[in-house]
Amino acid sequence: MLGCHKQVSLPYPPLQVFLHRASRFRMFRCQYLVPFRGIRGTELYSRVYPPSDDVSLKANKLCLVSPWYSKGNAIGSDGWKLNRALVHAARALAYLHGQNPPVVHGNVKGSKIFETSSGDFVLSGITETIRLSDAPKSRDGLRWMAPELFNPDEGESKTIYTDVYAFGMTIIELFTKQPPFMDMAYDIDVMISVIDHKRPSRPDGIDRALWNIAEECWRYEPRSRPSMARVTTMLEGLKYSPSPIATSPD
């Protein structure tokens, strides 16, 4: 079953830029990424991308098409499923960051990690990074955002390092089943705290090894954060049972 992943509205002139960027995602081959099936136009013409060479897609509203996952996202996963969700999402990010040039996901969080019918997990939301240079910047996911994204001198540019930071926040999110900084009611308070080098409090019951990984991911200096390949290796080394990050019984 396929679902409309996200709908965007664009004027006609930038469509070719949009489609060019989309074509790159279509070439990805990673079992831990939600497959990108194509683009469907909802106005003027309705075609699945890529069109034939002699046809131009002229729709100004586009749906990005991907499979539908009836089991939902990873939020609420416990035990070995939580561990599997983190490992599989980390592998997906390591794959993206390993491209030449590296591909930034830009919106890492628990709601973007979906369980497949086989019990594996896949990272979604990659098509949301297909943005035009003049598109407005979204504040969705502020609680997962790295401190440098709040610094006007940095230009608010998302990088592989901000993905790593967001993954650290996702570890806490999946363990607590709550967004990061749940003790703060307002996003502005979160932003001020993050700029001031503050991070979420350690949740009760979280294993020291998993907590250490989260802390490494959200180091203040971007380049001091581990690569997602390194994070994957560290997560794969967690062999605890019956802790909340226990490995699969099979």
UniProtKB/TrEMBL annotation:
Listed PROSITE patterns: PROTEIN_KINASE_DOM
Domain Protein kinase stretches: 1-238
GO molecular function: ATP binding; protein serine/threonine kinase activity; protein tyrosine kinase activity
Residue intervals passing through the bilayer: none
Pfam families xrefs: PK_Tyr_Ser-Thr (PF07714)
PANTHER family named in the record: SERINE/THREONINE-PROTEIN KINASE TNNI3K-RELATED
UniProt name for this protein: Protein kinase domain-containing protein
Species annotation: Botryobasidium botryosum (strain FD-172 SS1)
